[in-house]
Amino acid sequence: MSQNTIILISRNAVDYLFAEQVSKNLGVKFAQAESKDKLHEILCANMGCFILWDYDSVLEKRAEDARTNRELMDYFEKHRVWHRVFAISSHPLRDSIVPGNFHLFSKYIFRNFTLEATRVYSYIIHNILLPNPFETHSAGIDELQIQKSRITNSSRKKATLEALSIILEKKTIPKRIATSIIRATDELVLNAVFDAPVDMKGNRYKHLIDRGHEFDLVKKEEVEVELISTLSFLQVSVTDYFGSLDKEKFVPLLAKNFQKLEVNAPGENSKSDSGLGLYQILNSGLSMQTLIEPGKRTRMSLVVPWVANVRELRDSFRFFCLRIKN
User: Fold this and answer.
1) Do the domain assignments include residue 197?
2) Does any domain span residue 292?
């Protein structure tokens, strides 16, 4: 059998209903695994499996699940299937990260299974299951609209951010949230323009240029910006065509920045803030999906619901997703 299958590892009845609904939304099979052996049986019988795992059983150190969780984690490591695992948690990502375990959260969803959240999570999981994750499909999302633009000169970033600001204002997004979105988009565009370009030897040749400097971008250096608008959320995607974002550096860096940051004493040299922008993006309540096709392109997407205030944002869907397309 080669059909995609959603596998749930959880004792939580709400998780069961959620996973079942996501499977229906995507038109794929659904199975539940109570043990490592059952998981192995399902994985051997299905080519395209995706695992939803209740990670709170680990965080909260539930004695009844301790042995099963140890076996599962050993299995994930031995068979290298972490890329198929989405951790489900009632704890915000920033509260769950500890040194050494970030790979558990390379795909993470906050346990919020309202109808809106379930639809959004189905959309995200669908994009993960796609052979080509850079192609956008609705996956049950209503009235999806896509606008694309290309940044061909470093100075065009300003116009892109202004256009986004107008859209957010028309959608009556609260100013505080709109500011977070604009700043996060600015961060992603700057990364794509100045940090992504590499030469044939893999050396970055624009990262030392002053961020205010104006220059044209050659074809490969052009950056694509997508605005995907639906009835439920806005997605802002920034794509560079180098695919130079290195998972081996990106993941530890992001994990590091979830730890408490030290404040330097007067007179000390400030520590590098590389990666701090990504920490700030996730800490603001925005969701992020990162898709990397090494040597070809990197697509980083911000996702935010249409909400009336910050409290609604905190109560809405939240996720983080990192996928490497080998």
Assistant:
1) yes
2) yes
Write out the residue range of the structural domain in which residue 71 sits.
5-129
Residues of the chain above pLDDT 90, percent: 45
The answer to whether the CB of 128 falls within 8 A of the CB of 83 is no
Largest separation between any pair of C-alpha atoms in the chain: 64
| Percentage, residues of the chain above pLDDT 70 | 84
Domain boundary among 97, 129, 161: 129
Looking at the fold, whether 60 and 120 belong to one and the same domain comes out as yes
Give the integer Cα–Cα distance in Å for 169 and 285.
19
Task: Indicate the pLDDT class of residue 106, thresholds 50, 70 and 90.
Answer: confident
Encode pLDDT of 226-274 as tens digits: 999 888 899 999 999 999 988 777 766 666 665 544 434 344 433 444 4
Other beta carbons within 10 Å of 321: 22
pTM comes to 0.87
| Residue 231 within a domain | yes
Instruction: Give the count of domains, the chain.
Output: 2
178 three-class SS:
helix
Reported as a single tens digit per residue, the pLDDT across 280-291 is 787 788 999 999
Pair (123, 16) in one structural domain: yes
Q: What angle (nearest 5°) sits at the alpha carbon of residue 305, between those of residues 284 and 290?
A: 65
The pLDDT mean for the chain works out to: 84
What is the spatial distance between Cα 5 and Cα 49, in angstroms, rounded to a whole number? 5
Compute φ and ψ for 252, nearest 5 degrees: -60, -35
Q: How far apart are CA 9 and CA 274, in angstroms?
A: 35
Say yes or no: 61 and 86 in one domain. yes
